[in-house]
Every structure is written in C-alpha cells, then in structure tokens.
Amino acid sequence: MSTLGIDVGTTGCKAGAFSSSGKCIHLAYREYPTLYPRQGWAELDAEVVWSRVQETIAEVAAAAKSDPIRALCVSAMGEAATPVNKNRQILGPSILSSDVRGREYIDVMLRQMSQEEFYGINPNVLTPSYTLPKLQWLKEHRPELYHATDYFLMWGGLVEFLLGADPFISYSHANRTLLFDIHKQDWSEKLLAISGMDRAKLPRCLPAGTVAGSVSDTIAAQLGLPRDVKIVVGGHDQCCNALGAGIAQAGRAVDGIGTYECITPVYLGVPDPAKMLALGLNIEHYVIANHYVSFLFNQAGSLLRWFRDTFAAGERSDPEIYRRLDAEAPRNPTNLLVLPYFEPTGSPGYVTDASGVIVGLKTSTTRGEIYRALLESITYYFAQPITQLRSLGIDTSEFIATGGGAGSDLWLQIKADVLGVPYTRLAQTHCSVAGAAMIAGMAIGELPGIADAVPRFVQRTKTFYPMAKHHHVYQERLERYGELYPLMQNYLSVLSYGSESERS
User: Fold this and answer.
1) For residue 204, what are the domain limits?
2) pTM of this structure
C-alpha cells in the first residue's frame, strides 16, 4: 500500500505517492498564476487551483496502481481562505497573504486590545497578512459573497472537503486566521466577538493525523483512486515540510525554500510568549503532538519567478531555465544589493509599506549578476534573525534545505557562505509532500510512528560547506544590507501607498 501527499502552494501544487519504505513512486506538479486585479491585491482563482490539484492526483494515482493508495493527506499554504457552500461549490477567489486588503482592521483590533493581550490568545504579531482582515474586508465590501458563504476553508481543509470529508481546519492552519485560541485548541469566543466574525462560517478544528473521512466514490472514480481512500488531517505547509525533512524533535530547524523561504524551528511545549513576541516570532501547533513551531519567512521563489518572467520571458517555458540562470550567474559575490521587499515581508520584519530595490546597477551589469544578487539578498534577510534563534535553544549549526530552491547548488552554496554554516540537501527535497504522506501513513498504521518513518523517508545526499573567502566578503555586504532599508524607509512608504495628499 502507498500513501498520497498533496501540497498546495501559492504558485503551484504537487502530489506524490510514497511506498511504506519511503520511496517516492511518482511526483506530479502543476503551476497556476497569481492574479492582481488591482495594485496591492493578490489572489488565486480557486477553481483553477482545484483543477490543477485534481490533475496531479489523477497523474499520481495512475502511476501508483501497482501499489494502491490507501490514505491521503494535504499540506497547504497558510492564510488564504476560500468561500464555499455546503454543496461543495467554490464561490470566489482565495485572497493571498501578500494582498494588502484589510490592513485598516488591524488598527481597529489594536484599539480594542493590546498586542500583548492578543498574543496571549493567538500568538501572532498582528499584521494584514493573516486571514481575519481579509474576511473583515469581504464582510464590508463584498457582503453578498460573505453572506452566501457557508464556510471559509483554508486550502488543506478545502481540498479534503472537495474530496469528500466534512469541513474542518487543522490546528496549524486555524492559528493563521488570528481567531484560534492556541491554549483551548478551538476558536476564541473573545476574538470572534471583537472581530465580528461568525463562528458558524468556520469549520471544526482538528489536530494533524486525525482521520477525517474517506474520498467519495464519485471523486475516486473521476481521479482514478481506489475506493475508501482515507482522508487524514494535515497541516500548514511549513509544518509538513519540517516533518518531511526529518525534524522529529525539539531544538532543530529546517529551511524550506519555495515560493516563500521559511526557517522553521521546533519547540517542545509552548515557548515563553514574552520572549517570542519580543523577537517578533509567532507560535503555532506542529504536526507532532505537544510540539510547536515558529517561522522566519520572506519572499524567495516568487522573486525568482518575477525575474524569470521579466528578464527571461522568452525562455520561461524552458524546464531548465533556472539551471541555466544558475550557470549564468558569476561564481563570486556581487557588488549589488537587493531589498527583497517586493511584497509585504514576513517575520520578524513584517514590513507592509515598502518596495523592492536593486542598488549598484551599471551599464556593465549582466542579467546573471542581478540573478545572483537576488539569491544573496534573499539570504541576507535571515542572517540576523537566525542568530536570535540560539537564545531560544535552537541549534543553528547546520540547516537542512528543502523545497524547489534546495535543488540549486548555487543557492545552497550562497546560503552556506553568507550564514557561515553548512547546508545539507536531502534525496527528497519536496518535503512538504513527503511529510503529508508520512502523516497519512502513521494515521492508518502503515507506519508505526515517527521514529520508524523518518529513517525511511529522509536520506542526506550532499552538504555545502562555507567558503571562508566568500564568508568574509559577505560579512561586509551584510553591514551594507542592514543600512539599506533604514535609509529608504520613508521614501519607500510613499512609493507603496502614496503621500497623504495622494491618499486623501
């Protein structure tokens, strides 16, 4: 028997079938566009995404007929909720975390309770990137859609709902809404009352690893799945990614390099809230009981896709385009600096009113130099916050790299050189898919437990060690990078939202 892991990300979806020995039988991928209806808005056509997800499932199911799929589990991006009705119909788009809609409601929330009081219930730093302000915006500006909606579902629960499960949300995804009480492990009545949200439009909260139903016979026949495939609750993609990388105990962290880059440390129990808030870090449930995680994250693959579509538009259909760009990049550190604030940044910066900047361009600057500078500056963003993880008892002496970016020798060497620590690639870099498959296997008893699953699924292949001469250069570059945003902060804010006279 095999298990199916599904990962729904911001720019694409993957599905993979894994045998009980941890071997990937087949992996399928589909991409979909981000839509920008207005400046500052960013959303997905949920019908298109669901169609692509079905395509990946069908492709994998066909390839796994000799080792039939018995259970599936979904890993998915956070924050983006989709309106649906009880008839399993999608009613509208998914508004992404990078969308600026709803930022005014954060100020309203902070007038009703302090950040410290809020963090005591839902340990997140209040910013517009989460689900709640988007739902409040919909309630005020799209009331007909809001009232027609029976449930707002995150993509993990949405895929499994469309496959046949009753509506639910994983604990880790519920945390991303800003409405979840992490201690009660359910929706917070206080936060619902303050925000004006309707509890009836929110699904039940379930922990990862819960069997939530079976794929309906109709959907199974359409997708080529066996009958009675069990549907297992998964979690936030970064949590599944960490599990798929073998992070099975507290005190370690993984670097997931996908559309966003996210460094995920794991803790046993809820860490000290005051210390976490002071560092600008969130706390949410991990996919292992009694364990929790936080995230350091920012744009990564989304910037490379922008670069590809802008500087290599005629080559974007080339499946080897990123390998070709890697080869085109210079072998030594560049003199360019990029401020990777093309969209609102993640933790711990949470900058919502900036823009991307490229500094140091000359008429002699090549495409390859700009490409390498992007890779460098994406890494600069994490340098100082990573040092703070040590104060939380997290081992930062080595990082496991996962996601699509982990396939780039150039990028992993840059990371090792900038941060001064080894970066290790695994045989299976699509760890969110593998982590979801592991959860499914443990839920149905195909895998006895985590201690048994990790050695089967996780194998190291190559480690990139820091080059001393490059690390020395990057220490100087990091100082310059640290000066860039403070120098331009006010100007970038005006560029993003206009001056007061322009906004009035």
Assistant:
1) 2-246
2) 0.89
